[in-house]
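Support request from a user on the community tier.

User writes: "When I paste my structure tokens into the form, the page sometimes reloads and wipes my input. The last time it worked, I copied everything first. Here is what I submitted, just in case something in the input itself triggers the reload:"
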């Protein structure tokens, strides 16, 4: 399966609907897996109708191009309120927001997981504010960063 080609197709379909592809992943064995897409609307919220339109259009293209062997399930969803940050641009877009951080290796005094405020990304280093102090972590040392829902 050519995930790069599928990604290009998904980006094109999402773009034609005024949406952006946030993430694309394959889960499960070949022939019985799940192709998961996460889409977002740069200005506004993703609706059920948006997910349905992307699923219908991309599903048709995938079937015509025969890019996925065997049976598969196509899932299209919004990133949600507690969305994961996937791309470097996300670390600037959500600057100032509260986040949950999970690192690949623990930091002395912090461990692997901690809540913080995101201060952005520059020069391959992500900056966080934690209890009034600045914490800087190399981008490659981060396993996951998710937004915290603030009401």
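"...and here is what came back when it finally went through:"
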């Amino acid at each position: 399966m050519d995930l790069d080609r599928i990604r290009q197709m998904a980006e094109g379909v999402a773009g034609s609907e005024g949406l952006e592809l946030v993430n694309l992943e394959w889960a499960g064995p070949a022939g019985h897996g799940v192709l998961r897409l996460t889409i977002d609307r740069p200005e506004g919220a993703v609706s059920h109708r948006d997910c349905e339109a992307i699923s219908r259009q991309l599903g048709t293209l995938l079937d015509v191009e025969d890019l996925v062997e065997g049976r598969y399930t196509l899932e299209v969803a919004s990133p949600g309120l507690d969305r994961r940050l996937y791309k470097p641009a996300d670390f600037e877009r959500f600057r100032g927001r509260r986040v949950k951080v999970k690192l690949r290796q623990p930091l002395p005094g912090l461990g692997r997981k901690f809540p913080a405020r995101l201060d952005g990304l520059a020069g391959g280093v992500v900056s966080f504010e934690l209890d009034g102090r600045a914490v800087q972590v190399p981008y490659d040392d981060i396993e996951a960063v998710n937004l915290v829902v603030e009401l």
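Agent notes: The reload is a front-end session timeout and is unrelated to the input. The chain has a mean pLDDT of 93. The beta strands are 20-27, 31-40, 70-77, 98-107, 111-122, 125-130, 133-138, 142-147. Escalated to web team.
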